[in-house]
Design a protein that fits this description.
Length: 254
């Protein structure tokens, strides 16, 4: 059985769907986390002991206390990074804020696949009345806003953050120059459109005692219709049914 109980569906050359189901953490999934968590957090220069990586994440989780939304979002995003690396996307961002021990600001992720740049945005919810379609739309709108904004909109430059992460996460001269230009365009109000970019919106729904696997056919049909509205160059849509954060927290505490 696949580690994420995943199904991949290609709707077109432009749109690919990924449906993941994580009820509990199998031995294979824990082993994958063990192998990847240091790189995901610190990049290829990671020489930190695994126990210290886990301890840093534990400190952040413990500080959040009863802030379940923050912890849910953090773990949902981590699983997205884990899955993308599992399917051979190349990571060019760190799973942390460079100024503090926590999630980073700007884009949730920057990746390459076959020399094409991909932008990641992760959304999650514990409201099982919410749908993957609505959460993917939320992530899509968030990415669109960031990609189409500039200094005149009085928002932070996501490209500057990405530029700094590339230097540490996985130095790549061509990518750095591309991101540097986009950052310059941002501060000089040279606008871009989402249709110029490849994007990866991610949706995680925590189902708790209402656990069920994704209805593949139903969701595929919904995205066949929904994908016609998407303006991005290419899109990988990731939908995850997850039972809870308990297995991840138990792993970090182990």
């Amino acid at each position: 059985m696949a580690i994420f109980q995943e199904t991949q569906i290609s709707l077109s050359e432009k749109v690919t769907l990924h449906f993941l189901n994580i009820e509990n953490y199998s031995d294979d999934l824990v082993k994958l986390i063990e192998d990847e968590i240091g790189f995901i957090r610190n990049g290829p220069l990671n020489d930190e002991d695994l126990r210290d990586v886990k301890k840093r994440i534990k400190i952040w989780i413990d500080k959040k206390g009863k802030e379940e939304r923050a912890k849910n979002g953090f773990i949902a995003e981590f699983i997205c990074h884990l899955y993308l690396r599992y399917i051979k996307f190349e990571q060019y961002s760190l799973f942390k804020n460079l100024e503090e021990n926590g999630p980073k600001k700007g884009f949730d992720g920057l990746y390459l696949l076959n020399n094409e740049v991909w932008i990641v945005e992760s959304k999650s919810t514990t409201n099982n009345k919410k749908s993957h379609k609505s959460k993917i739309n939320e992530a899509y709108k968030d990415i669109k806003t960031k990609l189409e904004s500039s200094e005149e909109d009085k928002v932070n430059d996501p490209w500057e953050n990405a530029k700094n992460h590339i230097q540490i996460a996985n130095p790549n001269k061509s990518l750095s120059e591309n991101v540097k230009k986009l950052s310059s365009d941002f501060i000089n109000n040279r606008k871009h459109k989402i249709k110029e970019f490849n994007i990866i919106p991610c949706s995680t729904i925590y189902l708790s005692d209402n656990w069920e696997i994704i209805d593949i056919k139903d969701l595929e049909n919904k995205f066949k219709s929904e994908s016609k509205k998407i303006e991005a160059k290419k899109i990988n849509i990731i939908c995850i049914n997850k039972k809870s954060i308990a297995d991840f927290v138990n792993y970090i505490n182990s």
